[in-house]
Amino acid sequence: MRAVIQRVSEASVEVNKTVVGEIKTGLLLLIGIDENDTEKDAEWLTQKILNLRIFSDENQKLNLSVQDISGEILCISQFTLIADYKK
Question: Is position 6 annotated as part of the catalytic site?
Answer without folding.
Answer: no
